């Protein structure tokens, strides 16, 4: 059985992404939780599975894959029937492009609105860069809806790797009371209704371990 090493569900947006790709597609896996930012013993546990020293990490027999997007790509190849990428070549290229954009960008939004599920919902003053990030995310969601909305409620109709990559942003918008335009709200609603997304959220809210550096935003 596959093994997925993850961090705290309350905080670890990167862990959420491949976890959601697995769970939403009913792919069996063993979840291995290692708390983040605790002590050297936990750091050593992470290093034992990934020399990068970060989570998530996927273990498939003698194959180890780290980095959220790399894991999603591996799962798409390992389980082609899940259709983690759209079948149409143009849509597949689009999905990969926006996933890579999320993977490498939106740093202001990440830094100013860290994932913290149990944080009381309230707005914060965002920088110009963060507001530009918010606008770009909603532009992506609205554009996908205009192109593929007739095929289903997610970015490319059916749930895909791109949805897994954007899932943490849905949490950030909720937690930091970021207004969502009507043409993008449908996507937030679809993700919030996804059973796997709800499961992760429940588990994250049930966690009691706090990471001080993330509790003062």
Automatic annotation (TrEMBL):
Residues 2-83 form the GST N-terminal domain. CDD domains: GST_C_3 (cd03194), GST_N_1 (cd03043). The lineage of its organism: Bacteria, Pseudomonadati, Pseudomonadota, Alphaproteobacteria, Hyphomicrobiales. One of its GO terms (molecular function) is maleylacetoacetate isomerase activity. This is Glutathione S-transferase. It comes from Bradyrhizobium macuxiense. GO terms for biological process: glutathione metabolic process; L-phenylalanine catabolic process. Keywords: Transferase. Gene3D superfamilies: 1.20.1050.10, Glutaredoxin.
